[in-house]
Amino acid sequence: VVNTFRTCCSQGYDIHSRQPERLKSDPFSSEVKPRILLMGLRRSGKSSIQKVVFHKMSPNETLFLESTNKICREDVSNSSFVSFQIWDFPGQIDFFDPTFDYEMIFRGTGALIFVIDSQDDYVEALSRLHLTVTRAYKVNPDINFEVFIHKVDGLSDDHKIEKQRDIHKRANDDLADAGLERIHLSFYLTSIYDHSIFEAFSKVVQKLIPQLPTLENLLNIFISNSGIEKAFLFDVVSKIYIATDSSPVDMQTYELCCDMIDVVIDISCIYGLTGDEAGTPYDKESMAIIHLNNTTVMYLKEVTKFLALVCFLREESFERKGLIDYNFHCFKKAIEEVFEVRLKVQRSRKLLSQRRWSKQTVPNGTQVHPH
Ligand SMILES: Nc1nc2c(ncn2[C@@H]2O[C@H](COP(=O)(O)OP(=O)(O)OP(=O)(O)O)[C@@H](O)[C@H]2O)c(=O)[nH]1
Which family does it belong to (predicted)? Predict the structure, then answer.
C-alpha cells in the first residue's frame, strides 16, 4: 500500500481503477476489541478520565462523580473509529479476593493504565502499582503498562518534572528489586483540566493499533510530497490522534487541532445539518481551512466516517492547494486499502473458524453449528 501511495504521489497517475471500493462502514467493527484497564487507588481520578475523554463531561462536573463500587465495562466503538473496551475498576479492588478472577481479566488485556494522584502521598499507590503490574505480567507479559501521574494541574512545571522523576525511579527500583527489570512502564503527566489527558490516551491507544507504522509511513510520504509541516490523523469523536508523522509533537499544536475539530463540529451542527434526522455534523463533505495570524494555515479534511486529517503548513505552501488535494486523495485511498486488507484477513479468519466449528460432529453424526 505504501509503495502504491508513493508512486501515485510522485507520478500523479490515475489510481481510481486500481482501488478497492470505499469503505462503507467502520473498518474495525467485526474485530475483537482490545481491553484497556483503568486501575489505581480510590479517588485517583479513573472515572473522571473516562468521562472526560469519552463522554465529553466537563472537568468541573467530575467533582460530583460518585465512587465506583463495581467494575464498569464500556465499549468504545459505535460512535468512534477507535475501538476498544475500557474497564474502570473500583479503587478498593482486592487481588486476594477469591471471587476476583484477575487471571481472566489480565489475559485479554491490551493496556493497563495505572492512575496515581500526584497531589496525594503516593507511597501506597506505588506499592499497589507494583503488586498490580507484577500480577498482570505473570498472567500476560504482552500488556502495555501505562502510568498516569494524574492531577498535575495543581503543580508547577519544576514540581511536575521532579514528581515524574521520583515516581519513575521508585517504581523501577521496586521492579528491579523483584528481579523484574524487563517490565517496561511508560509514564505520562496528565490532568483532565487540559489536553494532556487526551494526548496521553492517544499514545496508549496508538500502541494498540497494529497498522500504526503503516499509517505513520503514509503520513510521512504525504507531508513530504505536499510541503506540509505536521499532520495528524484524528478520531473526531474522542479527539484522540491515532497517528502522526515522525516529527515531534508539541502540546500547543495538538491543542490547536482539538480546537479546530470543535469549531468544525460546532459550526456544522449550527449551519451544516439539513434537518433530516439521519444527518450528522461530520460527513464526506467536511473540511475546513483556518489561516492563523503567524502565516500558518490549518487544513482539516474528512478521511473516513470517523477520521479526519489535520495539517499545519505555511501560507506559501498552501498556494499549491491543487497538489495537496491530489496527494490527499491518494492518501485517503491508501488508508482505505490498509483497512481493506485488514478486513479481508478478519473475514478469512472468521470463515476458517466457522469451518472448524462445522466440522465438529457429535457422536450420532449430527453437525454442531456455531452460534
Ligand atoms: N485537580 C484535579 N482533580 C481531578 C482530576 N481528575 C479527577 N479529579 C478529581 O478527583 C476526584 C476523584 O475522581 P474519580 O474519578 O471519582 O476517582 P476514581 O479513581 O474513579 O475513584 P473511585 O471510583 O473511588 O475508585 C474528583 O473530585 C475529581 O474531580 C484532575 O486531573 N485534576
Answer: Belongs to the GTR/RAG GTP-binding protein family.
Tell whether ligand 1 has an atom less than 6 A from the beta carbon of residue 43.
Answer: yes
CB 91 less than 6 A from any atom of ligand 1: yes
Specify the higher pLDDT residue, 364 or 220: 220
150 lines ligand 1 (CB under 6 A): yes
For ligand 1, the distance from its centroid to the CA atom of residue 162, given in whole angstroms, is 22
Task: Decide whether any atom of ligand 1 lies within 6 Å of the 202 Cβ.
Answer: no
Say which residue, 86 or 334, is predicted with more confidence.
334
Where do the CATH 3.30.450.190 domains begin and end in the chain? Answer: 211-273+280-348
Backbone angles phi and psi of 224, in degrees to 5: -70, -25
pLDDT in tens, 9-64: 543 333 333 333 333 334 444 455 678 988 888 889 988 998 898 888 899 988 88
Centroid of ligand 1 to alpha carbon of 48 (angstroms): 5
Q: How far is the CA of 73 from the centre of ligand 1 (A)?
A: 18
CATH number 1.20.1600.10 is the correct assignment for the domain at 211-273+280-348: no
Q: What is the pLDDT of residue 370?
A: 44
